[in-house]
Amino acid sequence: MCGIVGYIGGKEALPVLLNGLKRLEYRGYDSAGIALFGPEGLTVHKSKGRIRELEEKISAEKLPGMAGIGHTRWATHGEPSDINSHPQTDAEGRVAVVHNGIIENYGRLKEWLISKGLGFKSETDTEVVANLINFYYKDDILSAVREAVKRLEGSYALGIIAAGESDRIIAVRRESPLVVGLGKGENLIASDVPALLEYTREVYYLEDGEIAALYRDRAEVYNGEGQVIEKEVSLIRWDAAAAEKGGFEHFMLKEIHEQPRALTDTLRARIRTNTGAAASIDLEEIGFNKSWAAENAGRVVITACGTAWHAGVIGKYAFERYAGIPVDVDTASEFRYRNPVFDSKDICIVISQSGETADTLAAMRLAKQRGAGIIAITNVAGSTLAREAGLVMYTWAGPEIAVASTKAFTTQLACLYLIALKFGVLRGRIQDTDMVKYIEALEAIPAHAETILSGKANIQRFASLQFNKNKVFFMGRLFDYAACLESALKLKEISYTHSEAFAAGEIKHGPIALVDTSTLIVALCTQSSLFDKMESSITQVKARGAAVAVITWEDCKHFDGIADEVFRIPKTEDGFSPILSVIPAQLFAYYCSVLRGLDPDKPRNLAKSVTVE
Ligand code: G6P
């Protein structure tokens, strides 16, 4: 949520800040702003709307400063407006602050600051932080920040500059990511690595409570007591080009097309097909080459949010089918407030593309505290989840920029299938011959994904006929139902169509009341043993006037003459179908969004990384 950048060095800071903000716009985009040191001292420039609106506003002005901070916002306190945009300054204009997160005690702090005679212009919690820092600010901004953060409750990543100290930028975090980029004669801060890739690959990941002071020629990191600490330099391995659109109209379309490559990378790293030996899955990275999982695991608990939660639902079905182990799956925002019961034999799998989702991190910490073994599945090395979880299995999807998750989802599924199959082998549920069959099926998935993508014109044609529909319901059974959850989410996220997912057998228990001639039903039909059951459900909704499109296997004739449209996907193992069946749904959502004149990369009210509750 919200993007933060900061720069100090020998270049003009303005282009570096704007460039960095554009790379982070997916984190929030309802307003943007920058604060810069220039010949006239500290100046602040803000605008409601996208970064290009900020650019238009300041293009006429000359801002040659070589240090500054910037912010792109996803509103939490106060509507998107010029005044509520960041940077926020204190009442005297001495301190400018950009903030990501939520200050939970801001109301009490605000009252206290008002009682000291300070006035407020905005509705934000961030203005409270600026005033609080200024309250402690005499002549050393670093110690003022150290004092102020002691009084803050909640989550924050903060970038701070002070009018009298143009030689440094201060950064501090708690429960919200912040990275320090270490350049040559320049240093940067950012809430996420894409903003840094053009300038450096060497970074410090700040930990909770650490405070960094960035100068042109060095970056110092202190603990909460003010002692300097030695940080390990981490190297970012992402390819800078991977964070560009590469000829595609939108990041989402590019990322949909990257799935064959991403799936190959995620699968190949773990599949061993040495000649002479039976094919096997190597999960040494999460300790699964030993037999502890087989002997000890009593239950698997999966928790995550949004798309990652949908991956978890599919994971549940996969664990039950291939490993025969009980599985609970729950959204992290529910899980963290339940009273989840664990014993030390339980394994908790926590899934998060970003590794920074606030609810998911809280759920992981709760499970850990209650004694579960934690396995994280994440796309971002160095993320909070990756650092705290202990055992990490990375999705090798590369940076995902579009708000609607696509390649992260299918690679999460790839990881879950690998773990479920490995589990099945270790628990004696899968014989060698079956394993060979499953591994061959997994290895063929990237090529099958490519085949589906090569038929995208057919989905585009279908979208051009359906994009104005007001109700689109997805229905399916077993793995198809779980894939429907993700398909419906994609459509509603980026095209604002009312779309829902239903277990096909449940349609008759209520949802059918919503079905009429204006409804499009997309039926996912890949569970071969349940084709007749799906046929009944389709007949029921057709009898109420709905148009029905079916997604099924390439060799399946069952639904010809029953559905209005049949989309065919290459055949794989029934249980692996969601990795493939979701791709037509991703494309359908994308084309509906574009046909409705929307920006699929930046849907309204959403953010890529939700680091607040
Ligand atoms: C937000 C995003 C979703 C994402 C969810 C969980 O809501 O818009 O696309 O699935 O957060 O994010 P995570 O990074 O934890 O997978």
Chart the SSEs and their pairings.
Layout: E1 3-8, H1 13-24, E2 31-38, E3 41-48, H2 51-58, E4 67-73, E5 88-89, E6 95-103, H3 106-115, H4 125-136, H5 141-149, E7 154-162, E8 169-174, E9 179-182, E10 187-190, E11 202-205, E12 211-214, E13 219-222, E14 234-235, H6 251-257, H7 259-268, E15 271-272, E16 280-281, H8 292-296, E17 299-304, H9 306-323, E18 327-331, H10 332-335, E19 346-352, H11 358-369, E20 373-378, H12 384-389, E21 391-394, H13 407-426, H14 432-454, H15 456-466, E22 471-476, H16 479-495, E23 498-503, E24 519-525, H17 531-542, E25 547-553, E26 565-569, H18 577-595
Parallel strand pairs: 17-18, 17-19, 19-20, 20-21, 22-23, 22-24, 24-25, 25-26
Antiparallel strand pairs: 1-4, 1-10, 2-3, 2-4, 5-6, 6-7, 7-8, 8-12, 9-10, 9-11, 11-14, 12-13, 15-16
Helix pairs in contact: 3-4, 4-5, 7-13, 7-14, 9-13, 9-16, 13-18, 14-18, 15-18, 16-18
Question: In short, what is this structure?
Answer:
This protein has 613 residues and is of the alpha/beta class. The chain folds into 3 domains: 3-244, Aminohydrolase, N-terminal nucleophile (Ntn) domain (Glutamine Phosphoribosylpyrophosphate, subunit 1, domain 1, 4-Layer Sandwich); 254-452, Rossmann fold (3-Layer(aba) Sandwich), CATH 3.40.50; 455-595, 3-Layer(aba) Sandwich (Rossmann fold). Helix content is 35%, strand content 23%.
